[in-house]
Protein backbone atom coordinates (compact mmCIF):
# COMPACT_ATOMS: atom_id res chain seq x y z
CA UNK A 1 0.00 0.00 0.00
CA UNK A 2 1.91 3.09 -1.22
CA UNK A 3 1.14 6.54 0.09
CA UNK A 4 1.93 10.01 -1.20
CA UNK A 5 2.57 12.53 1.56
CA UNK A 6 2.89 16.25 1.38
CA UNK A 7 2.86 18.19 4.62
CA UNK A 8 5.01 21.03 3.23
CA UNK A 9 4.40 24.36 5.00
CA UNK A 10 2.60 22.64 7.84
CA UNK A 11 4.03 22.61 11.34
CA UNK A 12 3.58 20.50 14.47
CA UNK A 13 1.26 22.25 16.88
CA UNK A 14 -0.97 21.33 19.80
CA UNK A 15 -1.11 18.49 22.29
CA UNK A 16 -0.86 14.77 21.67
CA UNK A 17 -0.89 11.48 23.54
CA UNK A 18 0.62 8.49 21.78
CA UNK A 19 -0.41 4.80 22.05
CA UNK A 20 1.01 2.50 24.72
CA UNK A 21 4.65 1.46 24.84
CA UNK A 22 5.49 -1.56 22.64
CA UNK A 23 8.27 -3.00 24.83
CA UNK A 24 6.14 -2.74 27.97
CA UNK A 25 3.02 -4.15 26.25
CA UNK A 26 4.96 -7.31 25.28
CA UNK A 27 6.31 -7.76 28.79
CA UNK A 28 2.92 -7.24 30.45
CA UNK A 29 1.43 -10.07 28.34
CA UNK A 30 4.40 -12.33 29.12
CA UNK A 31 4.23 -11.84 32.89
CA UNK A 32 0.42 -12.02 32.92
CA UNK A 33 0.52 -15.31 31.00
CA UNK A 34 3.02 -16.83 33.47
CA UNK A 35 1.17 -15.53 36.56
CA UNK A 36 -1.56 -17.06 38.65
CA UNK A 37 -4.69 -14.92 38.86
CA UNK A 38 -6.19 -12.18 36.76
CA UNK A 39 -4.02 -9.58 35.05
CA UNK A 40 -5.48 -6.46 33.50
CA UNK A 41 -3.44 -4.31 31.14
CA UNK A 42 -4.66 -0.81 30.27
CA UNK A 43 -3.47 1.27 27.32
CA UNK A 44 -2.02 -1.84 25.68
CA UNK A 45 -0.50 -1.19 22.24
CA UNK A 46 -2.74 -2.71 19.55
CA UNK A 47 0.18 -3.02 17.14
CA UNK A 48 0.82 -6.14 15.09
CA UNK A 49 3.94 -7.02 17.09
CA UNK A 50 2.14 -7.04 20.43
CA UNK A 51 -0.76 -9.00 18.93
CA UNK A 52 1.84 -11.64 17.92
CA UNK A 53 2.77 -12.00 21.60
CA UNK A 54 -0.90 -12.45 22.58
CA UNK A 55 -1.46 -15.06 19.84
CA UNK A 56 1.64 -17.00 20.89
CA UNK A 57 0.35 -17.47 24.44
CA UNK A 58 -3.18 -18.20 23.25
CA UNK A 59 -1.71 -21.08 21.23
CA UNK A 60 -0.21 -22.40 24.45
CA UNK A 61 -3.63 -22.35 26.13
CA UNK A 62 -3.63 -19.00 27.96
CA UNK A 63 -6.99 -17.20 28.06
CA UNK A 64 -6.41 -13.62 26.89
CA UNK A 65 -9.35 -11.31 26.17
CA UNK A 66 -9.02 -7.95 24.43
CA UNK A 67 -11.51 -5.09 24.62
CA UNK A 68 -10.11 -2.15 22.67
CA UNK A 69 -6.84 -1.28 24.47
CA UNK A 70 -7.64 -3.22 27.66
CA UNK A 71 -6.43 -6.78 28.02
CA UNK A 72 -7.57 -9.34 30.57
CA UNK A 73 -5.52 -12.47 31.15
CA UNK A 74 -6.99 -15.27 33.20
CA UNK A 75 -3.65 -16.62 34.33
CA UNK A 76 -3.33 -20.11 35.78
CA UNK A 77 0.44 -20.18 36.21
CA UNK A 78 3.25 -21.74 34.23
CA UNK A 79 1.94 -25.31 34.59
CA UNK A 80 -1.10 -24.44 32.49
CA UNK A 81 0.96 -23.66 29.40
CA UNK A 82 0.76 -26.58 26.99
CA UNK A 83 2.46 -27.75 23.83
CA UNK A 84 1.00 -25.80 20.87
CA UNK A 85 -0.63 -27.92 18.17
CA UNK A 86 0.61 -25.64 15.39
CA UNK A 87 3.74 -23.59 14.76
CA UNK A 88 3.84 -20.26 16.58
CA UNK A 89 4.14 -17.34 14.15
CA UNK A 90 6.02 -14.35 15.58
CA UNK A 91 5.24 -12.23 12.50
CA UNK A 92 7.67 -9.29 12.32
CA UNK A 93 8.39 -9.11 16.04
CA UNK A 94 11.97 -9.59 17.22
CA UNK A 95 10.95 -8.97 20.83
CA UNK A 96 8.31 -11.72 20.77
CA UNK A 97 10.71 -14.19 19.17
CA UNK A 98 13.64 -13.58 21.50
CA UNK A 99 11.73 -13.26 24.78
CA UNK A 100 9.61 -16.33 24.02
CA UNK A 101 12.70 -18.38 23.17
CA UNK A 102 13.73 -17.66 26.77
CA UNK A 103 10.42 -18.84 28.20
CA UNK A 104 10.03 -21.85 25.90
CA UNK A 105 13.48 -23.01 27.01
CA UNK A 106 12.06 -23.66 30.47
CA UNK A 107 8.81 -25.34 29.38
CA UNK A 108 8.78 -29.14 28.97
CA UNK A 109 7.43 -29.41 25.43
CA UNK A 110 8.23 -29.02 21.75
CA UNK A 111 7.40 -25.91 19.73
CA UNK A 112 7.96 -24.93 16.10
CA UNK A 113 8.63 -21.22 15.60
CA UNK A 114 8.24 -19.20 12.41
CA UNK A 115 8.30 -15.52 11.43
CA UNK A 116 7.83 -13.29 8.41
CA UNK A 117 10.63 -12.90 5.81
CA UNK A 118 12.20 -9.98 7.75
CA UNK A 119 12.24 -11.80 11.10
CA UNK A 120 13.56 -14.94 9.39
CA UNK A 121 16.71 -12.97 8.50
CA UNK A 122 17.33 -11.67 12.05
CA UNK A 123 19.87 -13.55 14.20
CA UNK A 124 18.40 -15.74 16.91
CA UNK A 125 21.73 -17.31 17.96
CA UNK A 126 22.35 -14.29 20.21
CA UNK A 127 19.69 -15.83 22.48
CA UNK A 128 20.01 -19.54 21.64
CA UNK A 129 23.76 -19.61 22.50
CA UNK A 130 23.22 -18.69 26.20
CA UNK A 131 19.94 -20.64 26.34
CA UNK A 132 21.74 -23.77 25.12
CA UNK A 133 24.29 -23.24 27.90
CA UNK A 134 21.34 -23.41 30.29
CA UNK A 135 20.19 -26.72 28.70
CA UNK A 136 17.65 -25.63 26.09
CA UNK A 137 17.49 -27.72 22.90
CA UNK A 138 16.97 -25.55 19.86
CA UNK A 139 17.63 -25.99 16.18
CA UNK A 140 16.88 -23.90 13.14
CA UNK A 141 17.92 -22.79 9.70
CA UNK A 142 21.65 -22.26 9.02
CA UNK A 143 22.94 -24.27 11.97
CA UNK A 144 20.36 -22.97 14.36
CA UNK A 145 20.87 -19.28 13.66
CA UNK A 146 17.56 -18.33 12.05
CA UNK A 147 13.83 -19.02 12.08
CA UNK A 148 12.09 -21.35 11.32
CA UNK A 149 13.32 -23.01 14.49
CA UNK A 150 12.22 -25.74 16.81
CA UNK A 151 12.72 -25.83 20.53
CA UNK A 152 12.33 -28.47 23.19
CA UNK A 153 12.48 -26.93 26.62
CA UNK A 154 12.70 -28.51 30.01
CA UNK A 155 15.07 -28.70 32.92
CA UNK A 156 17.55 -25.79 32.87
CA UNK A 157 20.60 -24.92 34.94
CA UNK A 158 21.47 -21.36 35.98
CA UNK A 159 24.33 -19.49 34.28
CA UNK A 160 26.21 -16.23 34.56
CA UNK A 161 26.38 -14.65 31.12
CA UNK A 162 28.12 -11.47 29.96
CA UNK A 163 26.19 -9.89 27.08
CA UNK A 164 28.36 -9.78 23.94
CA UNK A 165 25.87 -7.37 22.30
CA UNK A 166 24.06 -4.51 24.01
CA UNK A 167 20.59 -5.99 23.72
CA UNK A 168 17.61 -5.80 26.07
CA UNK A 169 16.07 -8.72 24.21
CA UNK A 170 19.03 -11.00 24.96
CA UNK A 171 19.13 -9.84 28.58
CA UNK A 172 15.38 -10.41 28.97
CA UNK A 173 15.42 -13.84 27.28
CA UNK A 174 18.04 -15.08 29.76
CA UNK A 175 16.27 -13.54 32.77
CA UNK A 176 12.94 -15.11 31.72
CA UNK A 177 14.62 -18.49 31.29
CA UNK A 178 16.21 -17.88 34.71
CA UNK A 179 12.75 -17.36 36.21
CA UNK A 180 11.95 -20.97 35.21
CA UNK A 181 15.29 -22.35 36.48
CA UNK A 182 16.19 -23.55 39.99
CA UNK A 183 19.00 -21.32 41.41
CA UNK A 184 20.30 -17.88 40.51
CA UNK A 185 20.83 -16.75 36.91
CA UNK A 186 22.94 -13.63 36.32
CA UNK A 187 23.31 -11.42 33.26
CA UNK A 188 26.29 -9.08 33.19
CA UNK A 189 25.37 -6.01 31.18
CA UNK A 190 28.44 -3.94 30.22
CA UNK A 191 26.27 -1.11 28.83
CA UNK A 192 22.81 -0.40 30.22
CA UNK A 193 19.92 -1.31 27.89
CA UNK A 194 16.18 -0.73 28.39
CA UNK A 195 15.15 -2.20 31.73
CA UNK A 196 11.38 -2.73 31.47
CA UNK A 197 11.64 -6.46 32.29
CA UNK A 198 13.46 -5.66 35.53
CA UNK A 199 11.03 -2.89 36.46
CA UNK A 200 7.77 -4.67 35.60
CA UNK A 201 8.37 -8.00 37.34
CA UNK A 202 7.86 -6.32 40.75
CA UNK A 203 4.17 -5.66 39.98
CA UNK A 204 3.74 -9.43 39.58
CA UNK A 205 5.30 -10.11 43.00
CA UNK A 206 8.78 -11.27 41.95
CA UNK A 207 12.18 -9.57 42.03
CA UNK A 208 15.18 -9.09 39.79
CA UNK A 209 18.22 -7.74 41.62
CA UNK A 210 20.66 -5.28 40.11
CA UNK A 211 24.12 -4.73 41.56
CA UNK A 212 26.31 -2.63 39.33
CA UNK A 213 26.42 -4.37 35.96
CA UNK A 214 25.08 -7.68 37.38
CA UNK A 215 21.38 -8.41 37.00
CA UNK A 216 20.23 -11.56 38.83
CA UNK A 217 17.03 -13.53 39.13
CA UNK A 218 16.23 -16.37 41.50
CA UNK A 219 14.33 -19.12 39.75
CA UNK A 220 10.92 -20.56 40.55
CA UNK A 221 9.52 -17.32 41.99
CA UNK A 222 5.74 -17.35 41.82
CA UNK A 223 4.09 -14.59 39.78
CA UNK A 224 0.66 -13.27 40.78
CA UNK A 225 -1.76 -11.46 38.46
CA UNK A 226 -1.42 -7.66 38.45
CA UNK A 227 -3.02 -4.48 37.11
CA UNK A 228 -0.66 -2.76 34.70
CA UNK A 229 -1.15 0.63 33.04
CA UNK A 230 1.14 1.18 30.06
CA UNK A 231 2.49 4.72 29.44
CA UNK A 232 2.67 6.24 25.94
CA UNK A 233 5.55 4.95 23.83
CA UNK A 234 8.48 7.39 23.76
CA UNK A 235 9.68 5.72 20.55
CA UNK A 236 6.34 6.68 18.91
CA UNK A 237 6.38 10.18 20.43
CA UNK A 238 9.90 10.45 19.00
CA UNK A 239 8.58 11.06 15.45
CA UNK A 240 6.75 14.18 16.60
CA UNK A 241 9.49 15.34 18.99
CA UNK A 242 12.13 15.10 16.25
CA UNK A 243 9.89 16.70 13.61
CA UNK A 244 8.97 19.63 15.86
CA UNK A 245 12.65 20.50 16.40
CA UNK A 246 13.26 21.37 12.72
CA UNK A 247 9.86 22.01 11.09
CA UNK A 248 9.40 25.81 11.22
CA UNK A 249 6.84 27.33 13.63
CA UNK A 250 6.29 24.13 15.61
CA UNK A 251 5.26 24.05 19.27
CA UNK A 252 4.09 20.69 20.52
CA UNK A 253 3.28 19.06 23.87
CA UNK A 254 3.21 15.30 24.29
CA UNK A 255 1.48 14.03 27.42
CA UNK A 256 1.48 10.80 29.42
CA UNK A 257 4.55 9.43 27.72
CA UNK A 258 7.04 7.00 29.30
CA UNK A 259 10.21 8.77 30.43
CA UNK A 260 12.26 5.78 31.56
CA UNK A 261 15.87 7.06 31.29
CA UNK A 262 16.95 3.94 29.37
CA UNK A 263 14.65 5.14 26.56
CA UNK A 264 15.02 8.93 26.50
CA UNK A 265 18.38 9.22 24.73
CA UNK A 266 16.76 10.99 21.74
CA UNK A 267 15.84 13.93 23.96
CA UNK A 268 19.42 14.15 25.30
CA UNK A 269 20.86 14.00 21.79
CA UNK A 270 18.48 16.62 20.37
CA UNK A 271 19.17 18.96 23.31
CA UNK A 272 22.89 18.55 22.65
CA UNK A 273 22.19 19.51 19.02
CA UNK A 274 20.53 22.71 20.31
CA UNK A 275 16.85 21.73 20.50
CA UNK A 276 14.49 23.37 22.94
CA UNK A 277 12.83 20.49 24.80
CA UNK A 278 11.41 20.47 28.33
CA UNK A 279 10.52 17.18 30.02
CA UNK A 280 8.47 17.02 33.22
CA UNK A 281 7.80 13.83 35.16
CA UNK A 282 4.16 14.01 36.28
CA UNK A 283 3.42 10.46 37.40
CA UNK A 284 4.75 6.99 38.08
CA UNK A 285 2.99 3.98 36.53
CA UNK A 286 4.26 0.94 38.40
CA UNK A 287 7.99 1.45 38.38
CA UNK A 288 7.98 3.56 35.20
CA UNK A 289 8.24 7.39 35.22
CA UNK A 290 5.68 9.12 33.00
CA UNK A 291 5.38 12.76 31.99
CA UNK A 292 5.18 15.55 29.46
CA UNK A 293 7.55 16.57 26.67
CA UNK A 294 7.34 20.14 25.33
CA UNK A 295 9.25 20.88 22.15
CA UNK A 296 9.55 23.79 19.74
CA UNK A 297 11.44 24.66 16.59
CA UNK A 298 15.14 25.38 17.17
CA UNK A 299 18.38 25.78 15.26
CA UNK A 300 20.27 22.48 15.31
CA UNK A 301 24.03 21.81 15.04
CA UNK A 302 25.79 18.58 14.15
CA UNK A 303 27.38 16.48 16.92
CA UNK A 304 29.34 13.24 17.42
CA UNK A 305 27.28 10.38 18.89
CA UNK A 306 28.82 7.09 20.07
CA UNK A 307 29.35 4.77 23.03
CA UNK A 308 26.95 4.09 25.88
CA UNK A 309 24.18 6.37 24.59
CA UNK A 310 23.60 4.10 21.57
CA UNK A 311 21.25 1.56 23.28
CA UNK A 312 19.25 4.54 24.62
CA UNK A 313 18.65 5.84 21.05
CA UNK A 314 18.83 2.63 19.04
CA UNK A 315 15.26 2.82 17.64
CA UNK A 316 15.46 6.60 17.16
CA UNK A 317 18.62 6.73 15.00
CA UNK A 318 16.60 7.04 11.76
CA UNK A 319 15.06 10.21 13.22
CA UNK A 320 18.39 11.55 14.50
CA UNK A 321 19.75 11.13 10.96
CA UNK A 322 16.79 13.09 9.58
CA UNK A 323 17.34 15.86 12.15
CA UNK A 324 21.04 15.90 11.23
CA UNK A 325 20.13 16.80 7.62
CA UNK A 326 18.64 20.00 9.10
CA UNK A 327 21.56 20.71 11.46
CA UNK A 328 24.51 22.96 10.60
CA UNK A 329 27.72 20.95 10.23
CA UNK A 330 28.58 17.29 10.51
CA UNK A 331 26.78 14.68 12.61
CA UNK A 332 28.60 11.39 13.03
CA UNK A 333 26.93 8.32 14.58
CA UNK A 334 29.26 5.42 15.50
CA UNK A 335 29.04 2.14 17.50
CA UNK A 336 25.60 1.50 16.01
CA UNK A 337 26.25 -1.71 14.05
CA UNK A 338 23.23 -3.26 15.81
CA UNK A 339 21.09 -1.24 13.37
CA UNK A 340 22.05 -3.75 10.69
CA UNK A 341 20.11 -6.49 12.57
CA UNK A 342 16.76 -4.76 12.91
CA UNK A 343 13.63 -5.19 10.73
CA UNK A 344 15.91 -4.30 7.83
CA UNK A 345 19.54 -3.17 7.71
CA UNK A 346 18.61 0.26 9.05
CA UNK A 347 22.01 1.81 8.24
CA UNK A 348 21.51 1.02 4.53
CA UNK A 349 17.81 1.94 4.66
CA UNK A 350 18.44 5.36 6.25
CA UNK A 351 21.16 6.15 3.70
CA UNK A 352 19.01 5.09 0.74
CA UNK A 353 15.87 6.96 1.83
CA UNK A 354 17.58 10.18 2.93
CA UNK A 355 19.86 10.20 -0.16
CA UNK A 356 16.78 9.92 -2.38
CA UNK A 357 15.40 12.96 -0.55
CA UNK A 358 18.59 14.92 -1.28
CA UNK A 359 20.56 14.49 1.97
CA UNK A 360 24.35 14.43 2.10
CA UNK A 361 24.73 11.16 4.01
CA UNK A 362 27.43 8.47 4.04
CA UNK A 363 27.17 4.86 5.19
CA UNK A 364 29.81 3.86 7.77
CA UNK A 365 30.42 0.28 8.84
CA UNK A 366 28.97 0.99 12.29
CA UNK A 367 26.94 4.12 11.68
CA UNK A 368 26.37 7.20 9.58
CA UNK A 369 27.87 10.56 8.68
CA UNK A 370 25.53 13.38 7.70
CA UNK A 371 26.52 16.82 6.44
CA UNK A 372 23.90 19.53 7.00
CA UNK A 373 22.08 21.62 6.40
CA UNK A 374 20.39 20.42 3.17
CA UNK A 375 17.11 21.34 1.50
CA UNK A 376 15.31 18.03 1.12
CA UNK A 377 13.26 17.29 -2.00
CA UNK A 378 10.31 14.94 -2.56
CA UNK A 379 10.85 11.57 -4.22
CA UNK A 380 9.61 7.98 -4.29
CA UNK A 381 11.20 6.10 -1.39
CA UNK A 382 11.02 2.54 -0.06
CA UNK A 383 10.16 1.81 3.57
CA UNK A 384 11.82 -1.63 3.28
CA UNK A 385 8.75 -2.93 5.14
CA UNK A 386 10.23 -1.30 8.26
CA UNK A 387 7.77 0.73 10.33
CA UNK A 388 10.40 3.14 11.68
CA UNK A 389 11.85 3.87 8.21
CA UNK A 390 8.34 4.50 6.81
CA UNK A 391 7.48 6.92 9.63
CA UNK A 392 10.83 8.73 9.27
CA UNK A 393 10.05 9.33 5.57
CA UNK A 394 6.58 10.64 6.49
CA UNK A 395 8.11 13.21 8.89
CA UNK A 396 10.57 14.26 6.17
CA UNK A 397 7.59 15.23 3.95
CA UNK A 398 7.03 18.27 6.22
CA UNK A 399 10.13 19.90 4.72
CA UNK A 400 10.14 18.72 1.10
CA UNK A 401 8.61 21.17 -1.37
CA UNK A 402 7.30 18.24 -3.49
CA UNK A 403 5.56 15.08 -2.18
CA UNK A 404 7.27 12.05 -0.64
CA UNK A 405 5.79 8.81 -1.93
CA UNK A 406 6.39 5.80 0.34
CA UNK A 407 6.03 2.39 -1.32
CA UNK A 408 4.64 0.51 1.71
CA UNK A 409 3.09 2.17 4.74
CA UNK A 410 1.13 -0.89 5.95
CA UNK A 411 4.24 -1.84 7.95
CA UNK A 412 3.56 1.14 10.25
CA UNK A 413 0.80 -0.99 11.85
CA UNK A 414 3.62 -3.00 13.46
CA UNK A 415 4.12 -0.37 16.17
CA UNK A 416 1.84 2.60 15.48
CA UNK A 417 -1.48 1.86 13.74
CA UNK A 418 -2.87 5.36 14.46
CA UNK A 419 0.25 7.17 13.23
CA UNK A 420 -1.41 9.01 10.33
CA UNK A 421 -4.42 10.03 12.43
CA UNK A 422 -2.08 11.47 15.06
CA UNK A 423 0.04 13.14 12.36
CA UNK A 424 -3.04 14.85 10.91
CA UNK A 425 -4.23 15.91 14.36
CA UNK A 426 -1.08 17.93 15.16
CA UNK A 427 -0.12 19.21 11.70
CA UNK A 428 -1.30 22.77 11.19
CA UNK A 429 -0.87 25.04 8.17
CA UNK A 430 1.80 27.67 9.03
O1 LIG B 1 10.79 -6.21 18.45
P1 LIG B 1 11.71 -5.68 17.40
O2 LIG B 1 11.23 -6.06 16.04
O3 LIG B 1 13.13 -6.06 17.62
O4 LIG B 1 11.59 -4.07 17.51
C1 LIG B 1 12.52 -2.98 17.59
C2 LIG B 1 11.75 -1.73 16.99
O5 LIG B 1 12.30 -0.94 16.23
O6 LIG B 1 10.58 -1.59 17.37
C3 LIG B 1 13.84 -3.20 16.88
F1 LIG B 1 13.76 -3.50 15.67
O7 LIG B 1 12.75 -2.60 18.95
C4 LIG B 1 13.53 -3.38 19.90
C5 LIG B 1 14.75 -2.59 20.31
O8 LIG B 1 15.54 -2.23 19.20
C6 LIG B 1 12.65 -3.66 21.09
C7 LIG B 1 13.41 -4.07 22.30
C8 LIG B 1 12.69 -4.65 23.45
O9 LIG B 1 11.48 -4.46 23.60
O10 LIG B 1 13.36 -5.30 24.29
C9 LIG B 1 14.77 -3.88 22.41
C10 LIG B 1 15.61 -3.35 21.31
O11 LIG B 1 16.24 -4.42 20.64
P2 LIG B 1 17.62 -5.06 21.18
O12 LIG B 1 18.03 -6.03 20.12
O13 LIG B 1 18.55 -3.91 21.27
O14 LIG B 1 17.38 -5.69 22.45
Can you characterise this structure?
With 430 residues, this protein is of the alpha/beta class. It folds into two domains: 3-20 and 231-429, Alpha-beta prism (UDP-n-acetylglucosamine1-carboxyvinyl-transferase, Chain); 22-220, Alpha-beta prism (UDP-n-acetylglucosamine1-carboxyvinyl-transferase, Chain). 30% of the residues lie in helices and 29% in strands. It has a five-stranded mixed β-sheet with strand order 16-17-15-2-25. It starts with a strand and ends with a strand. The mean pLDDT is 98. The structure holds ligand SPQ. Ligand SPQ binds at residues 22-23, 49, 93-95, 167-169, 172, 194, 314-315, 338, 342-343, 388, 415.
Produce a short descriptive summary.
This protein is of the alpha/beta class and 430 residues long. It is built from 14 helices and 25 strands. Strand 23 (380-381), helix 13 and strand 24 (404-406) form a beta-alpha-beta unit.
Amino acid sequence: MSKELHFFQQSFNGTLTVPGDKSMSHRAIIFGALAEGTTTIENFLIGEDCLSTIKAFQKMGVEIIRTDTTITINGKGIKQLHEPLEPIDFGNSGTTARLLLGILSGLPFHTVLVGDPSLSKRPMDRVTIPLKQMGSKTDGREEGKYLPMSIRGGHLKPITYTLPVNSAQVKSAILLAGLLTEGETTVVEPVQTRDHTERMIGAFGAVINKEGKNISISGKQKLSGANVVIPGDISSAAFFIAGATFVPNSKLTIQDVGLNPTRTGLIDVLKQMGASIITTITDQLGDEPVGTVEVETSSLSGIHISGSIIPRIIDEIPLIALCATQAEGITEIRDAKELRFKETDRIKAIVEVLSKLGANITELEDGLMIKGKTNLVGNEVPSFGDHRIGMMAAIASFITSTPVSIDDTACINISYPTFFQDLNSVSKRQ
